[in-house]
Amino acid sequence: MRAKVIENENGRRVAVEVCTEPCAIERGMRIIGGKWTGSILYHLKDGPVRFNDLARMVGGASKKMITERLRHLEDHGMIKREVVATSPVSVEYEITDFGSTAICILDELRQWSEKVRFQTE
Could you tell me which residue ranges the HTH hxlR-type domain spans (predicted)? Predict the structure, then answer.
């Protein structure tokens, strides 16, 4: 069902058939739409990455923000975290099969963004 705006008997515009819960687009954006989230997923698409390397790849984001985004993605089953028994101990992050399903969306967004960039310059 799709929400609509109509005029009521008093001539006022009102919304009808409104969503009572987030629509599919909103649910998806809540998972991958946060700042740095898409970049983090995109950097994990080619294989496991250690935390510090990931922090270097996602320039401009603080380690605290990267940690928050990684926890968010892990909570949603998009990535997995593995503690590596090295000296010193390190942590690697890897995209899950479910997380990989978002890569095509992010790649389309990347291509669209590149086109938009050239149209606005």
Answer: 23-121
Instruction: Quick: pLDDT tens for 38-55.
Output: 999 999 999 999 999 999
Q: Parse the chain into domains and list their residue ranges.
A: 22-120
Query: In 3D, which of 103, 97, 86, 77 has the Cα closest to residue 51?
Result: 86
121 confidence band (pLDDT: 50, 70, 90): low
Number of neighbours of residue 95 by Cβ within 10 angstroms: 24
Assign domain 22-120 to a CATH class: mainly alpha
What was the pLDDT predicted at 19?
74
Q: pTM of the full predicted structure?
A: 0.77
Long-range contacts of 9-16 (CB under 8 A, 24+ apart): none
Burial per residue of 59-85, b for 16 or more beta-carbon CB atoms within 10 angstroms, e otherwise: eebeeebbeebbebbeebebbeeeeee
Report how far residue 32's alpha carbon sits from residue 15's, in angstroms, rounded to the nearest whole number: 28
